[in-house]
Design brief:
single chain, 523 residues, alpha/beta, Chitobiase, domain 2, TIM Barrel, eight-stranded parallel β-barrel, seven-stranded mixed β-sheet, 17 helices, globular, binds acetamide
Length: 523
C-alpha cells in the first residue's frame, strides 16, 4: 500500500487495509472546548473548499454517520505539538494534549484529502476521500522558523498572512520578522513618529548586484506596518501555532533610524535612509539617551509581540564610527573595555538586562559571540555553523540558520547567467533537504542546545510576493522536513516523489514556486 504524500514526513505512518474516509455534506466535527479552535479552523477550510458548512459540536450526535472527532490526550504524556491521527471509513480521530497538536493533526488530515482542499473555490463535486491510515507524529525540533526581511522590500499584510498559512501547513512555528534595516524602518513606534515618517522612505534602489555605477532606479520605496496591523497579524499567526519573532537591529543596520533621529548616531550630518545594498557604517552611539530611545522602542515592541523571544540583530556592525569618535573612545576607556568588540558586547548586555527585566529572552546573530556572549542569549548561527558550536559549548541555545544551506534568497544553480539577480551563491533544493542541523562536533549533551533550524529570505533582490514565492518554495518544504521529521527521514528521491503531489497543494493556493529542476527534461 503506498504511503500518502505528506510533507513534512511524519514520525510514523501506517496505511490500513480498510475503506477510505469520505467527507460529505453530512459530516460532523466533534471537539472538546480546548481543541475547538482547531476544529473551527478546519471546518472553515473545508467550507471554502467544498461549500459545505459542517457543524462543530461538543458531543457526538447519535445520528451522525460520518464524523471528524478531536480527542484530548493525557497532557502529562505528550509534547503539546504531538498528535495521533486515525482515518477510518466513517470516522477520523485526531488526538492531542494541546491546541498545537490538534492544529497539526488537522494539517495532516488536509494533506490526506485532495489538493483542492487548499483552494479558494468550493468544489462539492470532487471525491473528498482520505485514505485509511494511522499516524503518530511529533516534531524533532521545537524552533522551526522562517525569516522574512520586510525592511529592504516590504510585503502586503495579506501576503504575510498567506505565507504564515503555508508555514503552518508545513508545521513551521516561528515567523522571524526582520522589521528594520539601513534601507527602511517598517514598524510604527508611537513615541518616535519620525522613525516611520522619515525612516520608512527611501528615494530609490540601486540597480544590479554590487555594481554601484549602474545607479538607482529612481523609484521611491515607502511603507510600514501600523501597530493595529501588527496586532492583527500576531493573532492570526497565534491561531496557527506560529509565534512572531520581531527583530530590531542594533547597534548596526541603524541607518534608517539614525536618518530619522540623527542624535542617535555619530556623524554631525546623518546619512539618508540608504538606497544601496551592502554593509553600512552607521551605528547607534553609546549615550544614555540612545539607550533610553532603544528601551522605549523595545517597550512598544514587547507590547505588540507576546513571544518570549526578541531579536536584537547584532550582525555586521563594522566599528569604524566608534573607532573614529572621540566621545565613544572615551566612553570605552571609562568602561575599562579593551576594544570595540567588547563595547558591542557591553551594548548588547545592557539590552539583555532590560529584556530580562521584562521577562524576555534575547536572540541575536552570531556576531554577538564576539567580545563575550550575553549569558541568556540565543544565537542564530548564520555565517556557517561555528557560531552554534561556540554557543552550545558555552551552554547557550542556538538556532541553525547557516547561509550556505538556509539562505533561500540565494539562487539554486551553479549558473548565475540562467538565474534571476541575487547573491550569486548556489543553494540547490537537494542540499537543503540533505542538511543535518546538529553539528557533528557537539556532544549529545551540547546538542540539546540546538533548539532548531530556520530558513532566511533576505529581500534585496526580492521586490515582489511572486519573487518571494519563487525563492521560498519548494526549499521551505525541504526545511519543514529537516525541522520536523525524525533524523532518519526518507532520502531526497522519496521527498521529490511526495513533492509532486505537494506542489499541487501550493498550486491550489496560487503559490508561485519554482519548478524543481529535477522534474525538467535535460536541456
Ligand atoms: C545576516 O545575514 N546579516 C544575518
Amino acid at each position: 500500500m503506498p504511503l500518502p504524500a505528506l510533507i513534512p514526513q511524519p514520525q510514523r505512518c501506517t496505511p490500513m487495509d480498510a475503506a477510505a474516509f469520505t467527507l460529505t455534506a453530512d459530516t460532523v466535527l466533534v471537539a472538546p472546548a480546548t481543541l475547538a479552535p482547531s476544529a473551527q479552523l478546519l471546518a472553515a477550510r473545508l467550507r471554502t473548499a467544498t461549500g459545505w458548512a459542517l457543524p462543530v459540536v461538543a458531543a457526538r450526535p447519535d445520528s451522525a454517520k460520518s464524523i471528524i472527532e478531536f480527542r484530548p490526550a493525557d497532557p502529562a504524556l505528550v509534547n503539546p505539538e504531538a498528535y495521533a491521527l486515525r482515518v477510518g471509513a466513517d470516522r477520523v480521530t485526531l488526538t492531542a494534549s494541546a491546541p498545537a497538536g490538534a492544529f497539526y493533526a488537522a494539517q495532516t488530515l488536509l494533506q490526506l484529502l485532495p489538493p483542492a482542499v487548499f483552494g479558494a473555490d468550493p468544489r462539492p463535486e470532487l471525491p473528498w476521500t482520505a485514505p485509511a491510515v494511522e499516524i503518530e507524529d511529533a516534531p524533532r525540533f521545537r524552533w522551526r522558523g522562517m525569516m522574512i526581511d520586510s525592511a529592504r522590500y516590504f510585503q502586503p499584510v495579506g501576503y504575510l498572512k498567506q505565507f504564515i498559512d503555508v508555514m503552518a501547513q508545513h508545521k513551521l512555528n516561528v515567523f522571524h520578522w526582520h522589521l528594520v534595516d539601513d534601507q527602511g524602518w517598517r514598524i510604527e513606534i508611537k513615541k518616535y513618529p519620525r522613525l516611520t515618517a522619515i525612516g520608512s522612505k527611501r528615494r530609490e534602489t540601486n540597480r544590479g548586484h554590487s555594481v554601484r555605477q549602474l545607479g538607482g532606479d529612481g523609484v521611491p520605496v515607502e511603507g510600514y506596518y501600523t501597530q493595529d496591523e501588527i496586532r492583527d497579524l500576531v493573532a492570526y499567526a497565534a491561531a496557527r501555532n506560529v509565534r512572531i519573532l520581531p527583530e530590531i537591529e542594533l547597534p548596526g543596520h541603524a541607518q534608517a533610524a539614525v536618518a530619522a533621529y540623527p542624535e542617535l548616531g555619530l556623524l554631525p550630518q546623518a546619512r539618508e535612509v540608504s538606497c544601496v545594498w551592502g554593509i553600512h557604517e552607521t551605528l547607534f552611539n553609546t549615550k544614555p539617551s540612545t539607550f533610553a530611545f532603544l528601551q522605549d522602542v523595545l517597550t512598544e515592541v514587547m507590547a505588540l509581540f507576546p513571544f518570549e523571544y526578541l531579536h536584537i540583530g547584532g550582525d555586521e556592525a563594522v566599528k569604524k564610527q566608534w573607532q573614529e569618535d572621540p566621545a565613544t573612545q572615551a566612553h570605552m576607556k571609562q568602561l575599562g573595555l579593551p576594544d570595540e568588540e567588547h563595547l558591542q558586547s557591553w551594548f548588547i548586555r545592557q539590552i539583555e538586562a532590560f529584556l530580562q527585566k521584562h521577562g524576555r529572552r534575547l536572540v541575536g546573530w552570531d556576531e554577538i559571540l564576539e567580545g563575550g556572549l550575553a549569558r541568556s542569549a540565543t544565537v542564530m548561527s548564520w555565517r556557517g555553523i561555528e557560531g552554534a558550536i561556540a554557543a552550545a559549548r558555552l551552554g547557550n541555545d542556538a538556532v541553525m540558520c547557516a547561509n550556505q544551506t538556509l539562505y533561500f534568497n540565494f539562487h539554486e544553480t551553479e549558473t548565475p547567467e540562467t538565474e534571476p539577480i541575487t547573491y550569486p551563491l548556489p543553494l540547490p533544493l537537494a542540499k537543503v533537504h540533505a542538511y543535518e542541523p546538529i553539528p557533528a562536533e557537539l556532544t549529545a549533551e551540547q546538542a540539546k542546545s540546538i533548539i532548531g533550524v530556520q530558513g532566511q529570505l533576505w529581500t534585496e533582490y526580492i521586490p515582489t510576493p511572486s519573487r518571494m514565492d519563487y525563492m521560498a518554495f519548494p526549499r521551505t518544504c525541504a526545511l519543514a522536513e529537516i525541522a520536523w521529521s525524525p533524523k532518519e527521514r526518507p532520502a531526497f528521491p522519496d521527498f521529490l516523489n511526495r513533492l509532486r503531489t505537494h506542489l499541487r497543494r501550493l498550486d491550489a493556493q496560487d503559490i508561485r514556486y519554482r519548478a524543481p529542476l529535477e522534474y525538467l527534461p535535460a536541456p
